[in-house]
Amino acid sequence: MNKRVDTTRLQEMARAYTASAVLYTALDVGLFTHVSNGSNTETALVEETGLRPVDVDRLVSCALSLELLDWDGDHLVNTLDVEAYLVEGKARYAGAWMMFTRPDVGGWFGMTEKMRIPDSSKLGMYQELTVESARKYHRATASIGFGAARRFVKTVDLSTRRHLLDLGGGSGAYSITAVEHFKELRATVLDLPPVVIATQEYIADAGVQDRVETLGADFTVGEFPSPVDVVVMASNLPIYDGEIIGGVVSRAFRALEPGGEMHLIGEMLNDNRKGPVDAAMWGMNELICGSEGRAHTRAECQKYFASAGFVDIEVIDFVPGILARCVGRKP
Ligand SMILES: C[S@@+](CC[C@H](N)C(=O)[O-])C[C@H]1O[C@@H](n2cnc3c(N)ncnc32)[C@H](O)[C@@H]1O
Fold first, then answer.
1. Strand pairing category for 69-72 and 75-78
2. Fold topology of 108-329
């Protein structure tokens, strides 16, 4: 018997942008922070936000329907992830990351034009970075990167390692967290010259200047500092095409001591390319940001490692549905 089809899924997709817009506005007006701080009725929210009652009514209906808010008796509460990550002032606040791609909204809706009249450079959005824009960028990445880095040190034992090279290390989240966790480890964060000024500020804040150094360089060219016994490259996979990523992995292999390991952490597609959606979308994001990058499959990442000479190659879920980790060892 034929499965009945209807338009529900397609209609939801056609209007999926409405959910992003509601999330941005809720963050703009501090909805979740107010609710967490006790302004948990619509009357109190009208007073706190200065918005019209009808708009608070609309926003609360949307937030309840999107499971951002819930009812506890007659007052509103944040749902669990919202309370953990979207309340300003809390340690795990990740609002900066949620808002990070908002300036790209216009670009996404101009996608057809961008495909018809392509305009790209090797570094894409990183071509024009300044120290100030790098600081702003990494306020957003740090709000999520340190959590990912904590997950990394809990799942990967680096206790026998001595020197970590962190390619495109940004805020230094992985290096800082790793040296805090593994007392014998030192680290070098390699990132573009304007970025490492911001990196140094994170390193100083964490008080690990004696164990984490920075190197301002473009990882798509030149040899890497050597010898090192661990290389990490996290969250920059879709920025580049296969040739560049393959080249980075090969140069990382050359920089490693025998027995050393490399971890490539990123949004990776399943081998049949049917998801995760987020990985495919980060690939498309490179059209919007103007690089030649695209989403890579798990099998492609394994191939970059194998071609470089790595053995014991595996791809493991890192943050399921979002990030995977490809690991290999230099014989
Ligand atoms: C999304 S951030 C990830 C930062 C960090 N690895 C993390 O996971 O929190 C990507 C980083 O890669 C850096 N990057 C991109 N292309 C680069 C290149 N060609 N050379 C050096 N760094 C690069 C960017 O400057 C940025 O800091």
1. antiparallel
2. Rossmann fold (3.40.50)
